[in-house]
Amino acid sequence: MRRQEEAVERKLAEKDVELMKLMEERKMSKKYEAGEAEQRIALMSEKLIAKQTDIERLEGEKRALALRLERSEVSV
User: Which residue spans adopt a coiled-coil conformation according to this UniProt entry (predicted)?
Assistant: First the structure.
């Protein structure tokens, strides 16, 4: 009976070690995923800023062209 208890305790200890390893792996995986998500967010933010800059530039060009058109219509 004592041997069985010792065997069960050993198996339980082995499972505890295995569980701790798996928990650590999961924790590392989440850190990696979080870092990857942060990189994607940074990249998307850069792209958004670039697109907003393009939009502002195009709006400025549109206003300038509209003004030129208006002036040319007035002078005709």
Answer: 5-75
Distances (CA, A) of 27 to 14, 17, 52, 75: 20, 15, 37, 72
Q: How far is CA 60 from CA 3, 6, 38, 64, in A?
A: 85, 81, 33, 6
> What pLDDT shows up at residue 23?
92
- d(Cα 23, Cα 17) in Å, to the nearest integer? 10
With helix as H, strand as E and coil as C, how does the chain read? CHHHHHHHHHHHHHHHHHHHHHHHHHHHHHHHHHHHHHHHHHHHHHHHHHHHHHHHHHHHHHHHHHHHHHHHHHHC
1-36 residue pLDDT tens:
888 888 899 999 999 999 999 999 988 888 878 888
